[in-house]
Design brief:
The complex is a heterodimer of chains A (356) and B (283).
Chain A lengths: L3 H13 L1 H16 L6 H26 L7 H21 L4 H15 L1 H13 L4 H19 L10 H7 L2 E6 L3 E4 L8 H6 L1 E5 H19 L1 H11 L1 H6 L4 H27 L10 H11 L11 H21 L4 H25 L4
Antiparallel strand pairs in A: 1-2, 1-3
Helix pairs in contact in A: 1-16, 2-15, 3-10, 3-13, 3-14, 3-15, 4-5, 4-7, 4-13, 5-13, 6-7, 6-13, 8-13, 10-11, 10-13, 11-13, 14-15, 14-16, 15-16
Chain B lengths: L4 E10 L2 E11 L4 E6 L5 H8 L7 E6 L2 E2 L5 H7 L1 E4 L11 H5 L6 E4 L3 E4 L1 H14 L16 H14 L4 E5 L7 H16 L4 E4 L3 H7 L2 E6 L2 E7 L5 H9 L18 H6 L16
Parallel strand pairs in B: 3-10, 3-11, 6-9, 9-10
Antiparallel strand pairs in B: 1-2, 1-4, 4-5, 7-8, 11-12
Helix pairs in contact in B: 4-5, 5-6
Classes of the chains: A mainly alpha (356), B alpha/beta (283).
């Protein structure tokens, strides 16, 4: 017979892993009730749809671990996306080659995208403005500039190279006939084109390269350790000789770098630069970080947890589309999951220590 | 024997307030010195001057025989003056060995080029220093937040010792601890002094100071007013010196202000249970 203590122990283990269990339940549910939900195409679609949130949430993880929050990333996507698109279109109109125009656009977006992070960091670390306020201010500023740069209209007519990157895949596989990297096999018929299996979107590769690098930095290096230490106790970090101010500035710059990268990925995927792009993804990103195990008080969290948090939302989103449920229901679901996550976070310690 | 630390004529003013006034102090290797005084007597300011937080307006500091200017807390740490404040400055979300190495992490090369944390090294080195100090902690991989107050204190002390503390300054080391834990920390202080590391301890718990310190310095209104060997004094005398009902040896301190200050006396009540009333009419 299982006694009460054993039961509690099992319960604790289950509750600690609740997001994995939740994700599994989602997948099983949609596999049963959806259409072709677990197909390669659909799973890749989940990844693609989640790209912007994945990138925002990775940067946000760093910030939340230090005990801060970065709300500016919502409009940073539009800000850097508009810069990226504008530079590309302008250079193309000036008759400059596509590859130069595209790489200049991406570089400009990534470099200028560091600026809001630098300002956020300076405000938070040096001038002691609460992160919520500083980054909320930047949220509005970034949106305003994005509208100015784009003249209030989406930027279209980007170089064709953008779509071949953004809509491209790492591998194209035509069963029993062809297997190519980055390019659709040559000399194939229309019918064969329909049977072509594209594997791993380029955008997903770009995102995961950076996510992997920063997951490694957070988990394995001194920089990561100091990020956790600052979240645990600013005082302890300072007295251990850590330059807390400089570290915080770097952390906010990491967050705005990821937001800019998300903006670039948005341009690559949707072949347009829009000022309000990605603003609705801010909530998803913060939710993903929190359900991924980070505390808004700082000190805990991991990129791995955040990725699972993002997938939890992405699987749900695509699942609702798959079932034909209107997508605004997603906001209700995500809101509920966030509250559930915070409740579990609060009651878990009581469960662990056996207080009823 | 040569003192490890000697401060001479240290004065520290904040605007018009003289927090530390012409203070002299010597600390010898292996001794435990109690620094006593009422709130506002200048103890904390003095240790902050020694640990580099404040700069003295006047006076000199000699450390290990050499005149030393302590520019900032990091400099103090570098020359071996470690200060453990009441809040301990531990990161609660990190484990024991990560706290011992916080800010000075040991790194190793990963794939020959990237530097990553060397957890094995930090774990084994931490275990060594805890063993040396006879400290027992359930696991060095446990987060600080899961440890008791005494265990945290022990971790903070181990960190100082690992980083080669030559002098340990402790501010209220036993204030927030249970009875058993207080004993453990006091034993740890004795272990340190037996390993020739001197400890300067600030505490309001006279009983604790008496049980561990060999020499007592009493400050009042920024001045050192008396110095006693623990063996040759009583808690009554010390309380009297602290509150001012017994005049000091060095300075002509006006004792009027202390008259009738029952609050202070109760504050310094010794835990020995003996009569702790200061002798009002002495002197």
């Amino acid at each position: 017979m299982m006694d009460k203590a054993d039961f509690r122990e099992i319960l604790v283990i289950l509750v600690k892993r609740w997001i994995l269990i939740f994700l599994a339940i989602e997948l099983v549910f949609f596999a049963i009730f959806g259409t072709n939900y677990l197909s390669l195409r659909n799973l890749q679609n989940i990844l693609l749809t989640s790209t912007v949130v994945l990138l925002l949430a990775t940067g946000q993880t760093y910030v939340i671990i230090t005990g801060g929050i970065d709300l500016s990333v919502g409009f940073m996507v539009g800000f850097s996306g508009v810069i990226c698109a504008k530079v590309m279109v302008t250079l193309q109109a000036a008759g400059i080659s596509q590859s130069v125009a595209v790489s200049s656009g991406i570089a400009a977006a990534l470099v200028l995208g560091l600026l809001p992070g630098l300002i956020n960091g300076l405000l938070v670390a040096k001038l002691r403005v609460p992160p919520f306020i500083a980054t909320f201010g930047m949220y509005g500023i970034a949106y305003g500039f994005a509208e100015i740069i784009s003249n209030n209209v989406p930027i279209h007519n980007l170089p064709t190279l953008v779509s071949s990157i953004g809509h491209g895949y790492l591998i194209y596989w035509l069963p029993e006939k062809a297997f190519t990297f980055f390019k659709i096999p040559e000399n194939i018929t229309r019918l064969e084109l329909q049977n072509l299996v594209p594997i791993v979107p380029n955008v997903t590769i770009i995102a995961f390269i950076f996510i992997a690098i920063f997951a490694f930095i957070l988990a394995k290096t001194r920089f990561g350790q100091h990020t956790y230490a600052i979240g645990g106790s600013v005082d302890a970090a300072e007295r251990s000789g850590i330059n807390v101010k400089r570290h915080l500035i770097k952390v906010y710059m990491i967050s705005s770098f990821f937001a800019s990268l998300a903006g670039v990925c948005y341009v690559l995927m949707f072949i347009t630069g829009r000022a309000p792009a990605g603003s609705a993804r801010l909530l998803d990103a913060v939710v993903a970080v929190v359900i991924g195990g980070a505390s808004l008080y700082g000190g805990t969290g991991s990129i791995g947890g955040t990725i699972i948090g993002v997938l939890l939302i992405g699987v749900l989103q695509i699942g609702l589309v798959n079932l034909g449920v209107p997508t605004y229901n997603l906001y209700i679901a995500v809101g509920c999951i966030l509250i559930l996550a915070v409740l579990i976070d609060q009651f878990l310690p009581k469960l662990v220590h056996g207080k009823d | 024997m040569e003192p490890l630390l000697e401060v001479k004529n240290i004065t520290k003013r904040f605007g018009g307030l003289t927090a530390v006034d012409n203070m002299d102090m010597k600390i010898f290797p292996g001794e435990v010195v109690g620094l006593l005084g009422d709130n506002g007597a200048g103890k904390s300011t003095l240790i902050k001057v020694i640990s580099g937080v404040y700069h003295a307006n006047r006076g000199k500091i000699f450390f290990a025989g050499k005149e030393t200017r302590i520019d900032n807390p990091m400099h103090a740490l570098k020359i071996g003056i470690e200060t453990i404040y009441q809040d301990l400055a531990l990161a609660e979300n990190l484990n024991v060995y990560s706290n011992i190495f916080l800010g000075r992490e040991k790194l190793k090369r990963f794939l020959g080029l990237i530097k990553i944390l060397d957890h094995d090294y930090m774990l084994s080195e931490s275990r060594k220093v805890l063993d040396q100090l006879e400290i027992e902690v359930p696991s060095l991989k446990k987060q600080i937040r899961t440890l008791s107050g005494g265990q945290r204190q022990a971790v903070a002390i181990s960190r100082s010792i690992y980083w080669d503390a030559k002098l340990l300054i402790m501010d209220e080391p036993t204030a927030a601890l249970g009875v058993v834990e207080q004993k453990n920390v006091l034993n740890l202080i004795r272990t340190l002094s037996s390993q020739d590391i001197p400890v300067l301890i600030i505490s309001h718990q006279l009983h604790d100071v008496f049980s561990v310190a060999s020499r007592l310095l009493i400050m009042r209104r920024g001045k050192k007013i008396a110095e006693r060997m623990t063996k040759e004094t009583t808690t009554d005398e010390i309380v009297g010196l602290i509150v001012g009902s017994i005049p000091g040896d060095y300075h002509d301190v006006n004792t009027d202000t202390a008259k009738g200050s029952d609050v202070n006396r109760r504050h310094f009540a010794s835990k020995s249970g003996k009569n702790h009333r200061p002798k009002q009419n002495q002197g």
